[in-house]
Amino acid sequence: MAGVAGQARRQQVQFRSNDPVINLTGEWSFAYSEGPELRRFTSVSDLDAAGCALLPCTVPGNFELDLHRNGIIPEPFFGMNIASLTRCERSHVWYARPFTAREMPGLDAELVFEGLDCFADVFLNGELAGRADNMLIEHVFAVNGLLKGENELLVHIRPAVEEAKKFSYPPSVGALGGFLESLYVRKAPHMYGWDIMPRAVSAGIWRPVTLRFRPKERLETAFLRTLSISGGETAHLALHYTAALSGEADVRVEIAGRCGDSEFHASQQAGAIGGVLGVSVSGPRLWWPRGRGEQNLYDVTVRLTRGGQELDRLTFTHGIRTIALDRTSVTDASGSGEFCFRVNGERFFALGTNWVALDAYHSRDAERLPRVLDLAHDIGCNTIRCWGGNVYENDLFYDFCDRRGILVCNRR
Description:
By secondary structure, the chain is mainly beta. It has six helices and 25 strands. A hairpin with a 2-residue loop joins β15 (about 250-260) and β16.
């Protein structure tokens, strides 16, 4: 539920204010081939030599939206136009962008693709930087030694329906609508067609792209969770962390949090690759669902130090709460039985909705998200169920729910 899911996504996504970052979103170019892959292209010059025309596009984006902006296909959402776009499913697409960046001494360079849809090869200055095969998660590619000052980024996205042919489909397997090509592919399931969505097996770079530089010794992940609350007087938390270290001698991990006049601190020697740090909070300010109390959120900083000198830090917010489901196996004829959520040990009445896809083309999710969340808040929601046929939402969604007292149930 919200407190659980809202914390869990921060295992991989924390805020680093001190990391140098180059934003690679915005104006890109793309080329495509509707048939089989012509040959292996690793640079824009390869595309030019093969006669593949480069067209303007934007990232984040989707292939069909790029085609429409260039006047190649009609508006997908007019009439039945989207039904004719299945021909795009077998296209190979190449996205390209030049940028300026050099190595930074003492820092690791990483290309971060928050959303690649879906089977992709990423080339930096003609060298393979990494591969992706999952639309739903962030991909990070180490590019130390590949930056040249003036750089060229080329992303080749292979058609998902063709990749699906590489797997076997025994008689025991099945899929919604009979679309077996969806079974082994990590895309939003609704893209293959659903009762509430058209078939739109798209491709593209659908979330932002950045080049970031991180300390060689650093925190990789930090996940803070509430273990228990004793009589409302003491909260017991656990910080699960991983780190990249050249050696753990004299290295400590420290955590500090503040919410109003409530504070907590804890530290321990860091493990070679990570560990668990226990935290006790006296007189905690608890997080409550909307209508049951305040949405208290602690500003949390996790630091990695060697000999008292800071190596790295992560910052995020955390709501201290416990969430439980009281459920009996059956409800008898007289109505005896239980199915009830408890937050901080107290029952509450869930007023919820189902969170489905905001758009058939997910590059437009970010612009729609604030307005739809405002609507959810306006109708009084205190619970949202994230539908399993959708994408994984980003921190904007979870942070909104944290601040507005909305529990989140993630179904996967």
